[in-house]
Design brief:
This protein is about 30% helix and about 40% strand. The chain is α+β, with helices and mostly antiparallel strands.
């Protein structure tokens, strides 16, 4: 008397790993079960088993490649964190340039700020404000070309008290259309703080993410 053959559906439900995923061990168990429970009067086509084995081999290779890529990604991320931490520490005492509107006015000497005007640039004004936001000086800008430009503020040195200020630049082109302006600030790094998002530089109470630094100066 021939024992009844277990259905593929019930066999699969018994073998599939928790979570509904089939791994290497589950596939082999399923394959053995299929061989054990096939009808001896009507055996399965060996070509089907060959195809299943080929599919399993392909999937296994892809899984191995995925594991290797994940491992490489973890190593790369660790290397980047190490490089960033070392770089941040080496910046203490150096001057950096980053996007911002802060400017430190010296007691004497020369002073300038760096801006980037879109298009072909334009004309307008530069306004200097104190920490409370009050305007302390205004300079007319007859012409600021497009791209990175340096605006000289030496005329304000000695007239404006030494200290930290903020500035803004408003430009218009020849047709009176406002010109977009990006302002930059130059700061000397006096400390480093490490966060889960990466190193953060500090300068006189102002913090700058390491990734925001666009230039390092001696």
């Amino acid at each position: 008397m021939i024992e009844p053959v277990a259905s593929a559906a019930s066999t699969t439900r018994e073998i599939v790993a928790p979570g509904g995923k089939m791994g290497k061990e589950e596939f082999l168990k399923l394959l053995v079960t299929q061989l054990r429970n096939q009808d001896p009067m009507n055996p399965s086509d060996p070509k089907d088993f060959a195809a299943q084995l080929a599919q399993f081999s392909t999937v296994e290779q892809l899984l191995n490649i995925g594991d290797q890529l994940e491992s490489m990604k973890s190593r790369d991320e660790m290397l980047i964190r190490t490089i960033n931490a070392t770089t941040a520490l080496q910046l203490i005492g150096k001057s950096i340039v980053t996007e911002g509107d802060t400017v430190d006015m010296p007691a004497s000497g020369e002073m300038s700020v760096r801006v980037n005007a879109s298009g072909t640039g334009g004309s307008g004004t530069l306004v200097l404000r104190d920490t409370a936001g009050a305007e302390v000086a205004r300079i007319a800008l007859p012409r600021v070309e497009g791209g990175d430009q340096t605006i000289d503020l030496s005329s304000l040195v000695g007239k404006v008290p030494q200290g930290r200020y903020s500035y803004s630049v408003e430009l218009q082109d020849s047709a009176g259309v406002p010109v977009s302006v990006t302002t930059f600030c130059r700061m000397r790094v006096d400390g480093v703080r490490y966060t889960t998002s990466g190193p953060v530089l500090s300068s006189g109470g102002i913090t700058i993410a390491l990734g925001k630094v666009i230039e390092i100066l001696d």
